[in-house]
């Protein structure tokens, strides 16, 4: 069994979650925030039998869209005589950041 930890952009979450539910996957959805951009994203924890791992990865690829974001770098401290306009920096945000962990034990305790 595997545990897939997938960080996706918030706007991709609904279609992906719908597709996972349609196919009967069990998962937990956690609202999270990207450490770099400080934007809302979503972290999914999906526990699956190893044989079904490729199907989940396929859904992540299908619904996780890569996008370019522009970020304003922090303005340096400027002397009064200087004038400095910082240009936005292009940041490429991938469709999904995926970690696959081997699960030692899985139980649903009733
Ligand atoms: P953020 O941390 O907000 O990062 C958004 C995008 O900014 C990243 O896209 C990457 O292109 C860029 N970025 C991140 N850290 C950077 C840095 N130190 N210097 C320059 N550019 C940087 P992705 O790589 O597609 O990551 C999307 C989101 O996935 C991340 O949002 C973060 O929440 C999560 N993530 C990415 N790598 C991770 C890792 N190794 N561990 C845990 N979470 C990760």
Automatic annotation (TrEMBL):
Descriptive protein name: Protein from nitrogen regulatory protein P-II (GLNB) family, ortholog YAAQ B. subtilis
Top-rank taxon: Bacteria
InterPro entries in alphabetical order: CdAMP_rec, N-reg_PII-like_a/b, N-reg_PII/ATP_PRibTrfase_C
PANTHER family according to UniProt: CYCLIC DI-AMP RECEPTOR A
Listed SUPFAM superfamilies: GlnB-like
